[in-house]
Specification:
By secondary structure, this protein is α+β, with helices and mostly antiparallel strands. It contains 3 helices and 5 strands; from the N terminus they run ααββββαβ. The protein has a domain of 97 residues: OB fold (Dihydrolipoamide Acetyltransferase, E2P) (Beta Barrel), CATH 2.40.50.
Amino acid sequence: MDRRYGRVRPALAAIPVAVLLAAGCTGAAPQPTPKPVPTTAPGTVARAELGERLTLTASVERIITGAAFVVRDLDLTDGTLLVLSVAASAPAPPQLVTLEGIVIRFSHRELSERYHLGPPGPYQDFEGRRALVARNLTVWE
């Protein structure tokens, strides 16, 4: 029995080495799977669902009416976003604003009366696109 015991011990010690070699443990770090890179990075508004609440900070580019203005930011689809707001006073360009609101699909015909938008000319670029109805507006000085 002593003889057998002496032969088994070295064989047991070799098992972990064989398992490591079989498992391919070479010491090299595993390579991460590359993530697909979109050709155009979607903006915040593009990722938001219609009717979803959204908060963003951007600079005011231009005022259309007291209730409608355009903001600009790199994270926005096409760089700009139409904002409809019933805030007491519209911010002035180039003020920085933080907006909290609901993402909608803009239709001048459907929203003109509610927000007193005026003639459709200044809104042509935004027709059918996503816009933001701002519930809260913070102007940064």
